[in-house]
Amino acid sequence: MSGTLYLVATPIGNLEDMTFRAVRILNEVDLIAAEDTRTSAPLLAHYEIKTPMTSYHEFNKLDKGETLIDKLKSGQNIAIITDAGTPGISDPGEELVARCFEEDIEVFAVPGAVAAVTAVTTSGQHCRRFAFEAFLPKQKKDRKRILDELKEETRTIIIYEAPHHLLETLKEIKEALGDDREITCCRELTKKFEEKLKMTLKEAVSYYEENEPRGEFVLCIAGKSRQQVEEEQKAKWEEISLEEHVQSYVNQGMDKKEAMKAVAKDRGLSKRDVYNALL
């Protein structure tokens, strides 16, 4: 009978955020797969957890992942932990979980801290709906593609960034989303020097040009407002005539009545106004 893989969340800063269940599971499993054994060693020592550790990270995930799958298939129980937070988010835990599903190995989560959720709920930005991007791609072309996609995002956008890349990333985001878009820069969450600064993207760039970024950052960026979306759509439709607008929907397969109804909605008009104008 196969063993079980546990995704065990660890503190993102404050050691007191470890759960009782997390400590128990880490003590009970046969092996702990850690993103960086050196980073996790002080945490395990603090809670007197003596379970053996092995490394499992981005650069060995393929070979080590198969080794871990073999151990699970042999009946061993394994816990996976990341340097901080919940495994599977911005680390190779995602691939291991997928392999477990392929091999019919049970996977359970031991919930705990998540930097993205901790940040957005305390950011002063809307947090009912949000888009989590984690770290932007390293290649400039890929980063630009993602940022171009985010231009139309109406949900709060969450991005992780390291201090030495922060200013460059803020400049790229500002260029893509505009000077006046609001952002909350959250750093050192749950730690002694936790800080959350809410400002515009233009102000954020100016601030970190004068103040050296320190600590790990979570950026919570306001999505495009509904009002702005509606104004842009209205401006777009005003560039063409009502006849061209209706015809554009007819060309997509709508009958003329449906097309007129869609045009009325786009332009904030009544169906009768559109009908009379076309007559």
Largest sheet: 5 strands, parallel
Helix content: 40-55%
**How many H/I helices?**
12
Mean pLDDT over the residues: 91
Oligomer: single chain
Radius of gyration: 25 Å
Low-confidence stretches: none
Tally the beta strands: 10
Main traits of this protein?
elongated, alpha/beta, 279 residues, five-stranded mixed beta sheet, 18% strand, five-stranded parallel beta sheet, single chain, 12 helices
Task: Reconstruct the topology from this structure.
Elements (H helix, E strand, L loop, with lengths): L3 E5 L11 H9 L2 E4 L2 H10 L6 E3 L5 H13 L4 E4 L11 H10 L3 E5 L4 H7 L8 E6 L4 H11 L5 E6 L4 H12 L4 E6 L7 E6 H10 L6 E5 L4 H13 L3 H9 L5 H12 L3 H8 L1
Parallel strand pairs: 1-4, 1-5, 2-3, 2-4, 6-7
Antiparallel strand pairs: 7-10, 8-9, 8-10
Helix pairs in contact: 3-4, 6-7, 7-8, 10-11, 11-12
Give a description of the structure.
The protein has 279 residues and is of the alpha/beta class. Helix content is 44%, strand content 18%. The chain has helices spanning 20-28, 37-46, 61-73, 93-102, 115-121, 140-150, 166-177, 201-210, 226-238, 242-250, 256-267, 271-278; strands at 4-8, 31-34, 53-55, 78-81, 106-110, 130-135, 156-161, 182-187, 195-200, 217-221. A 5-stranded parallel β-sheet has the order 3-2-4-1-5, with helices on both faces. Helix 7 runs antiparallel to helix 8 (201-210).
